[in-house]
Amino acid sequence: MRTTSNPAFRNLPTGGGYGNYAGFGQPYQAQQYGGYQGAPPTTGERPITIDDVVTKTATTLALTLVTGFVSAWLVLTGQVAPMALMLPGMLVGLVVSLVIIFKRTPSAPLVLTYAAAEGVFLGGITGVFEAIFPGIAWQAILGTFGVFGAMLVVYKTGAIRVTPRLTKWIIGATVGAAVLMLGNLLLGLFGVNMGLRDGGALAIVFSLVVIGIAAFNFLLDFEAANEMIRSGVPAKWAWWAAFGLMTTLVWLYLEILRLLSYLQRD
Fold first, then answer.
1. Is the pLDDT reported for residue 22 higher than 50?
2. How much is the pTM?
């Protein structure tokens, strides 16, 4: 499997050899896809299909939206302080995501717990932004789904092929952006302003770049999910694919929300 910047898609099993199920892209070809040839079936479990990935991802996303909406409403109506939702949601989401990644075994309860926690976290943040910039929440949601849909079309049509060179570029850009954000955070603690998150022109450009990097990460996520389908791993791994896609969606949403707040400032 090609390398991906999304930790959720690393070290996936290579099993099954069923390979007759349609994926995100072109039909499965056992001996031509990156030199991989599926191993003979070793279990009686049903192999994963594109329907499994879509269903599990939709379920996970729906739970995040529901908990997010409730959390945002609680913040906007003043019933709960934002930090009372944001901090627990962030901590639970972080811990559960690490358990999922290091456990390396698909678990529907863990993925759904992660989705609910992220919904609470995002809802708390969204409530704060919505109170300051009315209408920004729907703009961010529509923008996130718009980018996701556009990258899915790009992947399915083959307009941009996920080559090893492109994969390395995306991973390098992702790591670079993460280092810059971490450096900006640490320097900010000592009163040093790099201008990456202050709402100025540089901050707007940086957010646009990060949104572009997050969007291209979807291509790697789609490719990883497609390889799971082509190699015929058990259907339960659809939850793992859903988790991987959700992590990129959360990242993209937060960055779009931030960019919109910059653009709406006086």
1. no
2. 0.83
Radius of gyration of the chain (CA): 19
Q: What is d(CA 234, CA 220) in angstroms, rounded to the nearest whole number?
A: 21
Q: Pick left, alpha or beta for residue 135 (phi over 0 → left; psi -120 to 50 → alpha; otherwise beta).
A: left
Give the mean pLDDT of 53-67: 95
Structure-token pair, residue 128? 């704060």
> Predicted confidence band at 7 (pLDDT cuts at 50, 70, 90)?
low
pLDDT digits (tens, 9 = 90+) for 168-199: 999 999 999 999 999 988 988 888 888 888 88
